[in-house]
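During the second half of the funding period, the structural biology subgroup turned its attention to how the target accommodates small molecules. The most pressing case was coenzyme A, which had performed well in the primary screen but for which no bound structure existed. We therefore specified the complex as follows and requested a full 3D prediction, including the ligand pose.
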Amino acid sequence: MNDSFSVRQFHPDDIKQVVSINQRCLPENYPDQFFMGLHYHAPKAFLVAEYEEEIIGYIMCRIERGISGFGRMPVKKGHIVSVAVLQTLRHKGFGKALITAGMEGMMGYGATEFFLEVRKTNEEAIGVYEKLGYSVRRVLRGYYRDGEDAYLMVKKEEVIQEEGATDE
Ligand SMILES: CC(C)(COP(=O)(O)OP(=O)(O)OC[C@H]1O[C@@H](n2cnc3c(N)ncnc32)[C@H](O)[C@@H]1OP(=O)(O)O)[C@@H](O)C(=O)NCCC(=O)NCCS
């Protein structure tokens, strides 16, 4: 990864840059309080990416309790609410780094699986999520305000077993 690139936790002073990136990259925009609310809810899973000392991307997430999408037990799920990287800096691995760090942040709150909604036509983001191990679980008809369908994509936490460890 490039030396000029890093990922760190969002700080309230970053709000203007993050809102600006959200507005430039996505049709789903929110008031400042929505971003701040997610920061207070799960600060370890609201991250910004910096490149050459400028904020160029962000990911914000929510921890939700529910029934596992992979079994029947109650679990904590990590919801990727929004993620974006400035257009001119895409395809450099920055999005993947942000999403991976966001999932680590969510695991810090006990999330054992992850999910997100993505526009059916957003092939680029779907491709990135698939690379990261997400798969389409179902179609959410008319999910977006303009009537477009979403894919619900899900991923289970990968338990990395230490060498020599057993399941017992
Ligand atoms: C989704 C987004 C954050 C990805 O950011 P990015 O920095 O371009 O992603 P990366 O460069 O880290 O790509 C990650 C992986 O996906 C792959 N990938 C990238 N673009 C792809 C495409 N169009 N099709 C298939 N795979 C793709 C890359 O090859 C990379 O895999 P690799 O590391 O093995 O090479 C970015 O496209 C974006 O901001 N889009 C607009 C906002 C948006 O749609 N957000 C998601 C809403 S749900």
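Two results from this model are relevant to the next phase. Strands lie at 5-9, 47-51, 54-67, 74-85, 113-119, 135-140, 150-156. The mean pLDDT is 94.
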